[in-house]
Design brief:
Distance between the termini: 35 Å
Number of strands: 6
Number of helices: 4
Largest sheet: 4 strands, mixed
Order of helices and strands: EEEHEEHHEH
Number of domains: 2
Length: about 140
C-alpha cells in the first residue's frame, strides 16, 4: 500500500568568518523529483549543490531548499550619495519655490531611493569559494 502525504522539513544553521546562514529544506510527496532553490544574490553556485544533494537522497517528491545568508553588519560600508541628493533637490526646487511643496527634510531625503548606499567589501574569490563550500555542506 503506497504511503501518501509524506512531508519532511530540516533546518541547519552555520557560520564562517563574518557570514552566518540558515538553510531549510522542505519536501512533499510527488511522482517525480522536482528541486527548487532560493538563495541570496551572489551565491548562484549553491543551486547546483542543492540539486545534486537532493538527487543523491531522493527519487521523487517536491523539494524546496532555501538559504538565507547574512554578513556581519560591521563589514558593510555605508555612504550617502550626495550626487543623488542634489538631483532630488534640483528636481523639487521649482515646486518649493512656487509654494506647492515644503522644503525636503533630512530624514525624507535619506529615505529616497539611491541616497543611502550600502556596499560590501570586495569578496576574495578564494574566500567566496570556501564560504560557498561551507554553506553547501
Amino acid at each position: 500500500m503506497p504511503i501518501s502525504g509524506m512531508t519532511g522539513f530540516g533546518r541547519v544553521e552555520g557560520a564562517q568568518g563574518d557570514w552566518s546562514w540558515a538553510a531549510e529544506a522542505r519536501s512533499v510527496n510527488g511522482r517525480n523529483l522536482d528541486v527548487r532553490f532560493r538563495g541570496p544574490p551572489g551565491f548562484d553556485g549553491l543551486e547546483r549543490a542543492a540539486r545534486e544533494g537532493a538527487q543523491a537522497r531522493f527519487q521523487r517528491g517536491q523539494v524546496t531548499v532555501g538559504l538565507q545568508g547574512k554578513r556581519a553588519e560591521g563589514q558593510v560600508q555605508v555612504r550617502i550619495n550626495l550626487d543623488q541628493v542634489e538631483r532630488y533637490l534640483e528636481a523639487t526646487a521649482p515646486l518649493v519655490a512656487a509654494g506647492r511643496a515644503a522644503p525636503p527634510s533630512l530624514d525624507g531625503l535619506l529615505a529616497l531611493r539611491g541616497v543611502i548606499e550600502a556596499a560590501e567589501p570586495d569578496a576574495d574569490p578564494e574566500a567566496q569559494a570556501r564560504l560557498e563550500q561551507a554553506m553547501a555542506a
